[in-house]
Task: inverse folding
């Protein structure tokens, strides 16, 4: 696992963390909606 | 086709099927999340590549197990609305907020930071990445906290008031609801069960690779860590289980009567029935092998202490004795088998044979899935032992189901069975495929021969070279 991220400024690394976190939550939200739709059909 | 079936029975089968399937994954991922945090922490502390290799190896497996756990968990929560709408309506004001906290934790701590764990190392750096790993590990624990609080309230409901419309409403203090009498015991017992489940999977995988190559440094490290867990945590788990049992005797005596197979009261000390065949019709345990007075000694710490039996309660309050009796014995039997493995590993370690004890490795492989069987058996004991109530003593299971026709429940049950076996079967198959490969494979920069340092050709040996660093050497002292 590369460690280049450690060289970037903190704000940039935090921004990446927030972006990946948000994307992950969004994916899970989409999965939950699909399952809900499946159960309603 | 399904007109002759009972909708309530089908709804119960459906919930039992989906919750059993679901429970396998959190039982594994709760422990694995903490194991990953330990591995990454050790890597950051020591700088040894070996810990990073193991972290990456188990992270892939964790991601799949976690994904399957979340998806099957979402189905569980929706099922409260589809098949158990009366329960959701009546108990919703109490259990709704607690379940919402669990879902929020699963979404915003576990799932959110799992993405950072999987894809973020190159972007966020080591320390933020470790923060994400800790968030996931803490998140799995907080999720377990809330969902076990809900379940415990259903087992030992306190802190609520009854509304005029028949609903359970929060009383003066939420603390009474959250920290209901059985919750601390159930939380400790279940979380330790999850840790042991993971430890035995890790130990089994390590043993599998050790049998193929005893010098595999990664497998040695995994095996050592897993066997420490087995040796140290199993006795604690047995003690916690005993305490949980005493708590159950105080608050749910019918469940303990079923676990013990005590159809009759014993005014002068109750025997411990080791094995037998409970017959609920005849109200007896056939072919019972029992030790006189031992049950009174275990449960009341007095050989002659009187013990009430199922004859003291109405028949329609009696849980299904056979299922509870046997699931309890399966759980306890596996617990003591785990203790045996832990003690065996201590003896092998003491003799310096931990990595050479082939029979111990074979036993560890055999015990790899034992944690799953134990948690399932334990869960069946506590859930079936609560019957015929869904909220113990207050709301019967028969009164909690949705007003659905049997064909509707049967159709969704069939769909669940098909989808679950297909989707989760593929997931489990892929996890096993990942586990079948040695932690060496696929890891970067550290692959090397296992027979010793690489030397240059010629009469005079050149400098020893070891691309993976010294931690990849097989080492007899590979302990943690």
Result:
């Amino acid at each position: 696992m590369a460690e280049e991220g450690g060289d970037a400024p903190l704000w940039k690394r935090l921004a990446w963390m927030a972006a990946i976190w948000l994307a992950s939550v969004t994916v899970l939200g989409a999965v939950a909606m699909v399952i809900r739709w499946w159960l309603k059909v | 086709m399904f007109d002759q079936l009972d909708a309530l029975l089908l709804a119960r089968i459906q919930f039992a099927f989906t919750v059993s399937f679901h429970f396998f994954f959190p039982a594994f991922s709760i422990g694995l999340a903490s194991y990953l945090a330990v591995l990454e922490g050790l890597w950051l502390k020591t700088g040894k590549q070996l810990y990073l290799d193991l972290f990456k190896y188990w992270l892939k497996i964790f991601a799949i197990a976690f994904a399957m756990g979340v998806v099957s968990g979402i189905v569980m929560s929706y099922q409260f609305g589809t098949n158990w709408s009366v329960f959701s309506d009546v108990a919703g004001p109490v259990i709704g907020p607690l379940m919402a906290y669990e879902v929020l934790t699963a979404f915003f701590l576990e799932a959110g930071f799992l993405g950072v764990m999987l894809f973020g190392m190159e972007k966020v750096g080591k320390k933020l990445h470790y923060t994400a790993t800790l968030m996931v590990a803490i998140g799995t624990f907080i999720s377990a906290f809330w969902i076990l609080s809900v379940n415990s309230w259903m087992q030992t409901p306190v802190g609520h008031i009854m509304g005029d419309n028949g609903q359970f409403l929060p009383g003066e203090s939420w603390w009474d609801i959250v920290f209901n009498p059985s919750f601390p015991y159930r939380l400790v017992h279940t979380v330790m069960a999850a840790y042991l489940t993971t430890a035995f999977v890790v130990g089994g995988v390590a043993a599998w690779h050790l049998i193929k190559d005893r010098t595999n440094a990664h497998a040695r490290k995994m095996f050592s860590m897993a066997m420490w867990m087995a040796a140290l945590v199993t006795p604690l788990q047995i003690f916690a289980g005993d305490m949980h049992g005493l708590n159950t005797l105080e608050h749910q005596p019918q469940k303990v009567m079923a676990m013990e197979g005590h159809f009759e009261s014993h005014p002068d000390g109750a025997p411990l029935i080791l094995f037998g065949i409970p017959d609920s019709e005849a109200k007896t345990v056939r072919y019972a092998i029992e030790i006189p007075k031992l049950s009174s000694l275990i449960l009341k710490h007095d050989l002659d202490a009187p013990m009430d039996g199922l004859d003291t309660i109405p028949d329609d309050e009696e849980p299904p004795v056979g299922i509870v009796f046997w699931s309890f014995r399966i759980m306890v039997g596996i617990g003591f088998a785990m203790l045996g493995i832990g003690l065996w590993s201590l003896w092998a370690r003491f003799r310096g044979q931990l990595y050479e004890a082939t029979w111990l490795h074979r036993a560890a492989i055999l015990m790899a899935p034992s944690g799953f069987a134990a948690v399932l058996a334990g869960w069946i004991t506590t859930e079936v032992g609560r019957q015929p109530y869904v909220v113990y003593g207050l709301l019967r299971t028969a009164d909690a189901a949705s007003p659905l026709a049997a064909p509707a429940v049967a159709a969704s049950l069939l769909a669940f069975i098909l989808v679950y076996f297909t989707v989760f079967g593929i997931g489990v198959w892929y996890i096993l495929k990942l586990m079948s490969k040695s932690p060496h494979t696929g890891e970067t920069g550290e692959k090397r021969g296992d027979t010793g340092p690489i030397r240059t050709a010629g009469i005079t040996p050149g400098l020893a070279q070891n691309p993976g660093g010294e931690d990849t050497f097989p080492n007899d002292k590979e302990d943690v």
Remarks:
- Residues 444-480 of chain B have pLDDT under 50 and may be disordered.
